[in-house]
Amino acid sequence: MPKRATRARGTTGDLRLALVATALLAAGAARGAGTGAVPSPLAGAREAPEKIDVKPPAVPSPQPIPVEHVFRAADDLAAPLRAAEAAAGPDPAVEEVERRLEEAARASQVLRARLDAQRLGDTSAREIERLRQGLAREDLFLADGQLVLEKRAERVATAERQIEDRLASWQLTAEAARGEQAPPAVLRRVAQVEESLRAAEARLRTEGDRLLGIQGRVSEVRAGLSLVARSVEEADAALQRQLFEVESAPLWRALSGPNRTGALGGQLRQALRENGRDLADFLAEEQERLFLHLAIFVALALGLLALRRPVAAMGAEGAALRGAAQVLSRPWSAALLLSLPLAGGLYPLLPPSLRDLLFLVFLAPLLRVLPGLMPDLFRRPLYGLVALFALDKLASIAPPRTLLARLTLLLVTVGALAGLVRGLRRGGWARFLRAGAWRVATRSAAVGAAALLAVSAVSNVVGNVTLAERLTHATLASATLAAVLLGVDIVLEGALAALLRVPALQRRPLVARHRALLERRIAGLLRAAAVALWAWRTAKGLGVAAAFSGALKAVLGVRLHVGGLDVSLGNVVAFAVTLAVSLALSKAIRFVLDEGVFSELRLPRGIPAAVSTTVQYGLVLLGFSWAVLASGMEMSRFSFLLGALGLGIGFGLQNVVNNFVSGLILLYERPIQVRDIVEVGTIAGEVTRIGVRSSTVRTFTGAEVIVPNATLISDAVTNWTLSDRRRRIDLGVGVAYGTAPQQVIDLLLAVVRGRAGVLDDPAPVALFLRFGESSMEFALRFWTADFDRWVLLASEVMVEVHASLGRAGIQIPFPQRDLHVRSLAPAAAEALAAARMRRGDGSARAPSEPPSPEATPPG
Asked: Which part of the chain is the Mechanosensitive ion channel MscS domain (predicted)?
């Protein structure tokens, strides 16, 4: 046995042994907690039917290296030793974790001392949000650092195990070499290798212990941050309780109180230092995301610049593109207006001061783009709103509940209230809110904002500063957010209108045929998203989002008991919403496939319809499955429903199932396809739809007939356009006896040869069919590839045949009959004779004399 097997493993081995023992104890405790008692070790043995001997996997034991291979094996150790050296060497990521760990530890101590020293209710809402964001940012970084440390520790542990295995092998090699009395050069080389491996092992063990120590400190700091976060939540709860409490002196007493300008100046300097520190930390930590944000802004600006020329060339559509032209006239401002809202996604833990700064920067492009797209009466209120919002955000830097902060808040509140009252009176700017689909909602929102501002002003005067700050900040933020979302929506709709009119997209069938529909649907989605975002942010700013969410959860948690079925209202809503979304998504995807993808691909007829229908039904089925899972129902509850459905299929739903299976056959076998011309019994027309249960045939007279799919499968169906849309046209014509047949054949072929719509292959054919009773009968047969126009083409050819025969002097006879009169009344005979004399047919004959064939009247 090597010496390594008997010596102590050091602190790393002890720590690993302790972790294994802790895991085993935790597993036993969890098992005991699950059963209600701690099981006896012998209980499992008595209950087991047989003993199963589970052996750990065999690990190959180290083997000594033969003496003749020592030098080559020693040379091969260079790479493992370098890898061990790299694993035990310095790591910039670990050093960054250590640096941030010390900063987080100091910040945790400072924050804990600060929150313990002051009363929780004295913390402002802005300070609470700033602390919450800072704690979340530090905890997120430490959590990522914990992962970095774990990966680094695993790498070090793996390298240490490899070095230990090699050291054991070389120890055996040293013993074997001494026993074999190897040459001194071999013994020296073995001793050198052992020394190098022991040094590498020691470095790796030291690095592993250091990493474990850092992990322990990270856990301690995160625990301290969690305590600070709990104190912050307590401060937030105390602040919420102060909403309806008078926590400050009335404003008239504060004005007559002692002046504390010096203390206020120190507080302002402290607030500015904290905001500057937040900005510096943000710029240092988010450099990559800042560059990504800048790249997005430049890309958007270049894209808008590229759209300027196509839109400028469409001057005839100025009314439709007025918004697009206004947006594209200021591409950099429009790009800034589109890129700044991405800050919420790029920087999820943005400090409040930087968020306000970005919002203020956001207002500059808004004022450049939005005024040109609204009536002149709205421009002055927009400028006033932006000015009040900027003043409110700049004043929020001042310490809360000071006289300066209260006076500034009152000024902002009164200014906003005056602007709203002026707009809501007769003839004010709010009269434009009475038009449009959102007139009731916008008018109600304006009235509600005025009421909230009035309550805020009164609360500030009487001393309830917390409520005043909440109402004023939330109202101004809501109004400004509405203006911002309006500007973003206008920019997006203008860019969309310009993009859909680019010639490259106009050549696409989807855009060429459905441009107006795409604009309308996408604009509707953008507006709905803007309204939803505005409503959520407004509720969150007013502090009612949590209450509304709780009330909604309570309503959705109502249980519905119907027989053996026990579901909640939330399950029903989740099922309905998921199913509705899946249906809408399936229809949209099928629309894109049919109109945008398959229309540009050359596929066999029927394949696009089969693929799009399959995709739609697959998405519906998948959506239904998701809806069932979202509802929280167990699939076992559908056993009764499936049994009832099977019984119904066996008795009353045979026709439905028959039609459904027939629909699948029509879809995949494709004997009948959409746009085919078919005859089913007495029905003839074009197939316009193939559904799951039935298909629709539009007759040539305009009627739409619903035909069950089983009829199309089981009955005889004539499909005129199954393989192609060619049609043979047969025209019959009779000429008078005495006409040369070959002349007629040549005339008929001359009419159709070279005519547009007539195919050369198969070639047209003119045939002499028979000798008729009154004429010689011919037939003209030719093919056309345009089935939809074969009736018009046949009519045109018949007109030309009639004209050609007329020009050639060939008569088209009509049927003739000889009428033999056996007896005739004298009066009638005289009248007939007089009629003959008037027509000049010759002398009158005797009534009993039969007329000659030449004198027989037609018909």
From this structure: 655-721
Angle at 68 between CA 63 and CA 69, to 5 degrees: 55
Whole-model pTM? 0.63
b/e 152-185 (16+ beta carbons within 10 angstroms → b) = bbebbbebbebbbbbbbbbbbbbebbeeeebeee
Q: Contact, 538 vs 478, CB < 8 A?
A: yes
CB 661 within 8 A of CB 616: no
Alpha-carbon torsion, ordered 287, 288, 294, 297, to 10 deg? -140
How far is 202 from 200, CA to CA, in rounded Å? 5
Confirm if 536 and 545 have CB atoms less than 8 A apart. yes
Rounded CA separation 41/55 (Å): 19
Q: Which two tokens stand for residue 664?
A: 């699948």
* Nearby residues of 322 by Cβ (< 8 Å), 6 or more positions away: none
Amino acid at 191: A
pLDDT average per 10 residues of sequence, the chain (859 residues): 37 38 38 36 36 46 82 85 85 84 77 59 68 78 86 89 88 85 85 88 89 88 83 76 75 67 58 72 78 88 80 56 70 81 75 74 76 71 83 73 80 88 76 61 83 89 84 87 81 80 80 84 87 87 81 80 69 84 87 81 75 82 80 62 63 70 78 84 86 85 86 84 84 89 90 86 90 88 86 90 89 74 74 73 43 38
Angle of helix 465-499 relative to helix 376-395, nearest 10 degrees, comes to: 130
Task: Report the 10 Å Cβ neighbour count for 732.
Answer: 12
For the CA atoms of 343, 347, 352, 358, the dihedral, rounded to the nearest 10 degrees, stands at -30
CA torsion angle 287 291 293 298 (round to 10): 160
Task: Give the whole-angstrom CA distance, residue 678 versus residue 853.
Answer: 49
Confidence (pLDDT) at 854:
38
CA–CA separation, 40 and 57 (whole Å): 27
SS3 of 260, please? coil
Residue spans of alpha helices (H) in 463-508: 465-499, 503-506
Closest by CA position to 170, among listed 9, 12, 4? 4
- CA–CA distance, 40 with 32 (Å, rounded to integer): 10
The stretches of 425-464 forming alpha helices (DSSP H) are: 439-462
Instruction: Output DSSP code: residue 605.
Output: T
Q: Which amino acid is at 612?
A: S
Which are the contacts of 632, defined by CB distance < 8 A and separation ≥ 6?
567, 568, 571, 574
Structure tokens that stand for 440 in this block: 């009731």
